Amino acid sequence: MRFVFDENHPPILARVVAPLGELDGHNVTSVRDLGIAGMKDVELFGVLVDDTVRTVLLTTDKAMSRRQHEVAAIRDTGAIVVVGCKGWNQQGDVIERARHLVWWWPMMVQCAGNADRGSFLELPWSSKVAMLKRWRA
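Structure tokens predicted for VapC45 PIN like domain-containing protein:
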């Protein structure tokens, strides 16, 4: 799988979990590291998604699941979107966000691997790891 952190996450978070992803053959990066920061979300899905690899976008933009043009782009491209809930964008301490991300990483990978293409997963800000809530775009 290919995990891409959007602009709502500092690029350092992608760099923290990249070695974990590589252990299982996954690619982890950020839109900033790819040089495509500032791109509209609909265009972003078109650029990132590749039919040969499952693409997972990590964001804290929960409103994305309510914007019909973005939902249509997710459905059409088959992207999987992991939405970090309240707390992910409110935690100012990047070290704490990184710690939380590492804690959740195995479950996030498992849920993204089992999710239907064109769906959303909800990543809670919690220390209790559980299956991620999911819904179709």
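Residues 19 and 58 are 17 Å apart (CA to CA).
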